Amino acid sequence: MSLVAGGPVIPNFGQGSRCEQTNGWWCTDWLHAHWGDTLQPALVQHVELSAIAVGIGFALALVLALAGFRFRLLDAPIGFFADFLYTIPSLALFQLLVPLTGLTVTTVEIALVSYTLLILYRNMIEGLRAVPTDALEAARGMGLTRFQTLVRVELPLAVPAIVAGLRIASVSTISIATVAAFVIPQGLGNPIFIALRQDLFKTEILAAGGLAVALALTADALLALTQRVLTPWSRA
Amino acid sequence: MVLADDRFRPGTFVDAFRFIGDNAHLLLVKTLEHLELSGAALGIALLLALPLGLWLGHRRRGFFFAASVSNVGRALPSLVLIAFGLTILGFGFWNNTAALVVLAIPPILTNAYFAVAGVDRDVVEAARGMGMSERQVLVQVELPLGLPLVVAGIRISAIFVLATATIAAIAGGGGLGEIIVDQASYGLAGVVAGAFCVSALTLLAAILLGLLRRALSPSPVPTA
């Protein structure tokens, strides 16, 4: 059984405009009427879900990357574990967590954070390792301690790689967060699931899906801009 | 929508393993369905994306195109693709295959492009100097050198496709996802069992393609 199959679906187009009754591709009047009560709240929830996940993922990946950078032995196991998490399908991971954390935001966030780790970790490690030896020698020559070198030389020089990872992680988190609606009725996936069950209401699917794509592209552009601001030296 | 109850229930995992033992046949049938859908999508995506990516990479043209395809591809949520496929093509096998193909193309195309375009130019020039035709340069020089990266792209696509084929169950795609989205029939234990199986399947595919990539990588040549 699936969400849209099974039994005659009660037509949900008995009321509303002509466009809604005929399940049109783009019903402007429906969009006007339901922006405030459906699409806008879903968009805001989606931004929240994704931002929390990327934030926690970033902090976690940074700690792991610093550990893996400092102690090379840890690198392979951390990378393998992150790769393992990344491989598990999102819908499956959500369901595997339900017996432990229930139908809650926690379940969704644990899964979303897991998917950010691989990309963030890999990019951070590679960014840190790519710091030119000349820069490190110069730092040592200036008498910087190991910690000072990390904070003042290595991390700033790794910023482009780190932000590149952040861009990919944000875009994929926004994308995967649509599936979260399967566990909790939040985010842009929710109107899509509702529309799938209500006789495939096309306008709602297209509008919510379009918003998700637009959100991902906007996040990507904003982070690209951040990178330019943070690394003025690479602009020359 | 799932109707799991909200309590902490680690015992479900034990029930899930019992479910796997009791329903081995069902799970096998669903796994084969899953592989059929994913295989079809991955096959079509390979036929479309691999030649295009290799050719563009060989000509070293379309850098912007190859890079944007991967960016835009990543921004397309799988659920949205499945839902779009359903609205445009209706219910069944092909809407899901089409959605999965769209999802599988970007990593294959982009990796094929950069695998070939990234081959050392001196090597390519040397091959031309030896009198190789463009086709021979691509097939005998660039492709073998770029193969690990090509396989890496196929591996990412395979992971995406197997994962999204799970979601395709909401659009009549069949496969293991059908168990995962149907708690009413299979119970939470069945849902968790389905999730186990699909995770194992994806991991297996990832490991096998990872090993293939490693096997194809040239062994490091001592520089001294």
Report what the structure shows.
The complex is a heterodimer of chains A (236) and B (224). Chain A is mainly α. Chain A has a single domain, classed as Orthogonal Bundle (MetI-like fold). In chain A, 75% of the residues lie in helices and 0% in strands. In chain A, helix 3 packs across helix 5 and helix 4 packs across helix 5. The radius of gyration of chain A is 22 Å and the shape is elongated. The N terminus of chain A is likely disordered. Chain B has 224 residues and is mainly α. Chain B has a single domain, classed as Orthogonal Bundle (MetI-like fold), CATH 1.10.3720. Chain B has nine helices and no strands. Chain B is elongated, with a radius of gyration of 21 Å. The relative contact order of chain B is 0.17. The model of chain B has no long low-confidence stretch (mean pLDDT 87). At the A-B interface, helix 3, helix 4, helix 7, helix 8 and helix 9 of A face helix 1, helix 3, helix 4, helix 7 and helix 8 of B.
- Judged by helices, strands and strand pairing, the structural class of chain A is mainly alpha
CATH class group of chain A: Mainly Alpha
Poorly predicted parts of chain A: 1-11
Q: Would you tell me the overall average pLDDT of chain A?
A: 87
Number of helices of chain B: 9
Rounded radius of gyration of chain A (Å): 22 Å
Number of strands of chain A: 0
SSE ordering of chain A: HHHHHHHHH
Mean pLDDT of chain B: 87
Structural class of chain B: mainly alpha
Number of helices of chain A: 9
What helical percentage do the residues of chain A reach?
A: over 70%
- Give a quick account of the main beta sheet of chain B: strands, pairing sense, barrel closure: none
CATH superfamily of chain B: MetI-like
Helix content of chain B: over 70%
CATH homology group of chain A: MetI-like
Number of domains of chain A: 1
User: Quick one: how many beta strands of chain B?
Assistant: 0
Radius of gyration of chain B: 21 Å
Q: What portion of the residues of chain B fall into strands of 2 or more residues?
A: under 5%
Using the 3D structure, state the CATH architecture of chain B: Orthogonal Bundle
